[in-house]
């Protein structure tokens, strides 16, 4: 039997020439996503992103698992083809050359390796014949759209290579018509035009060849404002000299993956630089782009990452360090970019290296210079311990890490600088053209700005107000040309370019721009007005000024489905901070900034306990960098009150959604605080809860005890009650009776306070305690009351908790209803980005299916659960998940793996679900020697190794 997979056209699988039924579009999309990386595992999250982009369905992992299961059924019995799931994700194994895309690339690669034109032309023709149309035309999601664009570029590159080879083999007359048609379809492609000129000349049509050159030259000048490149000019001269050679081969660009955003402006003038950086990245493991501010390091890094992204199966990930003011946050920033949370018992840097070890990805770390030592330490650790990770960094100076390759980024050449100016000027004045009347003026502007892209873009923004000639004249007479003694001339030119743009602002615009430099990572109108506006100014006044700054390219506007946000580029921000410092306003405005974001956090903390939870989550979380800056300011000022206000507002907003970094802040705030402060108990609760989440129960108990029994005020975040943390420690350490006594008392307190949110929380825990005591029926009244109380609040998290509690007490007596309740609880939590409640709903759903429904599906679901808690970094829940997995494996006959997990749980001081009778049964099933071996293996496992063992066991037995 011969199997063929087709991606270059409609997605198809054929057996002996007959199409197989691969299902509807979404299922074929899953097949295509696996075939693109045939033979390599595709991580689950990455696969979901490919199939659904940013709109995955609720329980997308389950939907994905179902599609994969159906595809397995379709491919059952097909020799040499299988779909498996392992620690790295889903993998489709087959001979890559049965996939037309990989066969195409194989043939193209062979053609490019041979020096015989006729052989190369034949191989490339064979490769191009595999194309049946546009790749996967019915798949309409961004990842595939980007890939389709990249593949079309690969196809065009192969066509161009084939043309070169065929021309080299003397087939000019045969190709003339096809090249002419292709050139008409791509009228600005210089290489294609050069091939057409050669074919025309060699067919005896020299005048047509020269006319073709003049035609493309006019189009390039008219539409791009640039002359033909050196290759095309060389072909033209060769024709004039009656010695026509072949133009140089140029390769297409590759797609990128990860968290890179599409850039709204064109990337111009750095093709050679991209190739040089790409070559360095291929050699790895650390490449640092250095250069002055504004020279284009960030854009070059991003474009190179996009270019080489296809070779990194685990994607390309960008971490921007510019918003950080303290090197201590570098590890957290990198983790945030990767979506990784700190692991139990590990520092953030160790967590990063554990996560990255074994992953094959490109990490772009941008703007290292102001946190150089910390960035160097984190990067050095990654480079040393993660052999498949390549780091591409940008900095004004090298990191100084062993193995670092430093590539200086130079200003643009004259022609490229002029092209950039023209492109950006047209964004402000569409009719702008680089005609002979303005060519000299534009060249002068770019030379005076030393080819620095940022300076050129700032100058181009002035085109809306004056001509290029006027701009050049003003440039000549401005302070742009007067460098400070001893300064780097290029850097001084950039500073002067910014200074010039700054001086062209109105006085109110200057004031606002300078004050906006306080923000870290961006801001919205409300923040700009609240922090920066003078007394008496209205929000409309601030908006008018802000729009003016956007129009003048001093501020970037970022739209979206919610509130518009704004950003000041880091180089401009540094300039603004210098002005602020010189004016002596930094401390005053930084305190206004901190007070504004503390107030925003307090408003958000109250609002997320109501019906508008989702609105406020989406409102506040984009300002996490500003919240961090506000907290650091409070600590620097030793302003305990402000620090406490911040850390007691974040448990609802950040702790359950971003990660546990804010719990560290709470610990630091306690060092400043007077125990008599009204917010002290809530801060203790926030700090203790973070330690509890990481599984350090001894320290959690010690921290919680600092509250000395005091109860936080009404409205405190659900997770920040010290007494609850102590009760939860008891619950998780095997003393549910003590926890039940605590929560029964808290139920009565919540009734007296008429606090429905707190009442739902405490009723939820009463139900949980009864379930743990193996008397779930006793918890039914509390769970049902929780639902009755939660629904009128319209608060998604409260409603999720109540449904979870009811599902928990019903899962033995009414498992089908319990599954529906868990699914609804998970959906509600996910709708407000509450990863903690979403995770426990996923976990209990999997546990219920393991006993009452589908054990094989439960294995797949628990793989998702383990991934979830590993990414979140919550070891309190991960140990519960591992207990469930041990029970599932024991029930499913995987005796040795179950015994190993039992031993790992006992070694970690955690209760095991396997009692003595069950262990005796397992010992009899495998024999004393294998039982002892499994116990020894398990007792040596700890932390992530336990999870890896459980994941492998589930994948094998599921």
UniProtKB/TrEMBL annotation:
Classification via Pfam families? BTAD, HTH_77
Gene3D superfamilies per the UniProt record, alphabetical: Tetratricopeptide repeat domain (1.25.40.10), Winged helix-like DNA-binding domain superfamily/Winged helix DNA-binding domain (1.10.10.10)
Give the UniProt keywords, A-Z.
Answer: DNA-binding
Q: Which GO terms describe its molecular function?
A: DNA binding
Q: Which part of the chain engages DNA, per the record?
A: 1-94
- Which intervals hold domain OmpR/PhoB-type? 1-94
| InterPro entries in alphabetical order | BTAD (IPR005158), HTH_77 (IPR058852), OmpR/PhoB-type_DNA-bd (IPR001867), P-loop_NTPase (IPR027417), Sig_transdc_resp-reg_C-effctor (IPR016032), TPR-like_helical_dom_sf (IPR011990), WH-like_DNA-bd_sf (IPR036388)
Q: Does the keyword Cell membrane apply?
A: no
What domain of life is recorded for the organism? Bacteria
Q: Name one GO biological process term.
A: phosphorelay signal transduction system
Q: Family assignment?
A: Belongs to the AfsR/DnrI/RedD regulatory family.
Q: What name is this protein filed under? A: Putative ATPase
């Amino acid at each position: 039997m011969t199997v063929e997979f087709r991606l270059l056209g409609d997605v198809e699988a054929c057996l002996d020439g007959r199409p197989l039924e691969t299902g509807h579009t979404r299922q074929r999309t899953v097949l295509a996503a696996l075939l693109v990386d045939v033979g390599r595992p595709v991580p689950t999250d990455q696969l979901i992103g490919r199939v659904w982009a940013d709109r995955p369905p609720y329980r997308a992992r389950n939907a994905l698992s179902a599609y994969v299961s159906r595809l397995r059924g379709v491919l059952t019995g097909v020799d040499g083809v299988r779909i498996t799931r392992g620690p790295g994700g889903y993998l489709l194994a087959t001979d890559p050359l049965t996939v037309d895309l990989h066969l195409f690339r194989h043939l193209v690669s062979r053609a490019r390796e041979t020096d015989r034109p006729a052989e190369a032309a034949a191989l490339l023709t064979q490769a191009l014949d595999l194309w049946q149309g546009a790749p996967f035309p019915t798949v309409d999601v961004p990842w595939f759209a980007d890939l389709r664009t990249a593949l079309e570029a690969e196809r065009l590159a192969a066509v161009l290579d084939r043309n070169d080879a065929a021309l080299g083999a003397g087939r000019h007359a045969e190709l003339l018509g096809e090249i002419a048609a292709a050139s008409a379809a791509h009228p600005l492609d210089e290489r294609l035009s050069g091939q057409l000129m050669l074919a025309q000349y060699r067919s005896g049509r020299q005048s047509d060849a020269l006319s073709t050159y003049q035609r493309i030259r006019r189009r390039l000048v008219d539409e791009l404002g640039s002359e033909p490149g050196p290759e095309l000019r060389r072909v033209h001269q060769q024709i004039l000299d009656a010695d026509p050679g072949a133009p140089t081969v140029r390769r297409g660009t590759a797609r990128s993956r990860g968290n890179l955003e599409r850039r709204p402006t064109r990337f111009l003038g750095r093709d050679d630089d991209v190739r040089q950086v790409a070559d360095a990245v291929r050699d790895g493991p650390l490449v640092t782009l250095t250069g002055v501010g504004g020279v284009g390091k960030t854009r070059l890094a991003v474009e190179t990452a996009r270019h080489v992204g296809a070779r990194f199966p685990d994607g390309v990930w960008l971490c921007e360090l510019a918003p950080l003011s303290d090197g201590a946050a570098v590890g957290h920033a990198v983790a945030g970019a990767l979506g990784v949370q700190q692991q139990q018992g590990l520092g953030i840097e160790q967590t990063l290296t554990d996560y990255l070890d074994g992953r094959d990805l490109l990490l772009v770390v941008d703007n290292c210079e102001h946190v150089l030592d910390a960035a160097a330490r984190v990067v050095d650790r990654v480079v040393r311990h993660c052999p498949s990770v390549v780091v591409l960094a940008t900095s004004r100076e090298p990191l100084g890490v062993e193995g670092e390759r430093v590539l200086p980024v130079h200003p643009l050449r004259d022609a490229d600088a002029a092209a950039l100016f023209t492109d950006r000027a047209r964004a402000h004045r569409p009719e702008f053209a680089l005609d002979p009347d303005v060519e000299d003026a534009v060249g002068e502007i770019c030379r005076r700005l030393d080819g620095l892209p940022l300076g050129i873009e700032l100058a181009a923004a002035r085109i809306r107000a004056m001509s290029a000639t006027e701009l050049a004249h003003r440039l000549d007479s401005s302070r742009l040309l007067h460098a400070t003694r001893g300064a780097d001339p290029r850097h001084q030119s950039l500073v002067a370019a910014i200074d010039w743009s700054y001086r062209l602002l109105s006085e109110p615009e200057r004031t606002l721009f300078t004050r906006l430099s306080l923000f870290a990572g961006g801001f919205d109108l409300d923040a700009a007005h609240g922090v920066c506006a003078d007394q008496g100014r209205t929000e409309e006044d601030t908006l008018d000024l802000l729009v003016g700054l956007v129009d003048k390219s001093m501020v970037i506007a970022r739209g979206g489905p919610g509130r518009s946000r704004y950003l000041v580029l880091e180089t401009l921000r540094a300039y603004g901070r210098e002005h602020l410092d010189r004016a002596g306003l930094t401390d005053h405005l930084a305190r206004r900034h901190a007070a504004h974001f503390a107030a925003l956090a307090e408003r958000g903390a109250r609002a997320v306990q109501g019906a508008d939870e989702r609105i406020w989550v989406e409102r506040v979380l984009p300002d996490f960098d500003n919240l961090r800056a506000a907290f650091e300011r409070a600590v620097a000022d030793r302003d305990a009150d402000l620090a406490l206000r911040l850390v007691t507002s974040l448990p609802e907003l950040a702790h359950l959604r971003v990660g546990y970094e804010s719990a560290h802040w709470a610990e630091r705030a306690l060092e400043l605080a007077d125990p008599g402060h009204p917010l002290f108990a809530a801060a203790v609760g926030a700090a203790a809860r973070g330690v509890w989440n990481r599984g350090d129960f001894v320290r959690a108990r010690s921290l919680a005890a600092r509250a000395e029994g005091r109860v936080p005020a009404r409205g405190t975040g659900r997770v920040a009650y010290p007494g609850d943390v102590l009760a939860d420690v008891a619950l998780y350490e095997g003393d549910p009776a003590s926890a039940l006594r605590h929560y029964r008392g808290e139920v009565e307190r919540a009734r007296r306070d008429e606090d429905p949110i707190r009442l739902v929380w405490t009723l939820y825990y009463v139900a949980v305690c009864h379930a743990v005591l193996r008397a779930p029926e006793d918890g039914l009244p509390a769970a049902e009351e929780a639902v009755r109380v939660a629904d009128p609040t319209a608060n998604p998290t409260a409603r999720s908790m109540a449904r979870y509690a009811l599902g928990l007490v019903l899962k033995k007596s009414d498992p089908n209803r319990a599954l529906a309740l868990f699914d609804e609880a998970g959906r509600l939590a996910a709708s407000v980005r509450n990863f903690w409640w979403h995770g426990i709903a996923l976990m209990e759903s999997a546990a219920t299916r393991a006993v009452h429904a589908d054990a094989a599906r439960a294995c797949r679901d628990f793989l998702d659960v383990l991934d979830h808690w590993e990414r979140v970094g919550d070891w309190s829940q991960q140990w519960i998940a591992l207990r469930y997995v041990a029970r599932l494996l024991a029930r499913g006959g995987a005796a040795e793996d179950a015994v190993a997990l039992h031993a790992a749980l006992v070694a970690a001081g955690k209760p095991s679900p396997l009692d003595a009778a069950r262990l005796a049964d397992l010992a009899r099933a495998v024999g004393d020697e294998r039982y002892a071996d499994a116990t020894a293996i398990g007792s040596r496992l700890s932390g992530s190794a336990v999870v890896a063992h459980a994941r492998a066991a589930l994948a094998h037995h599921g």
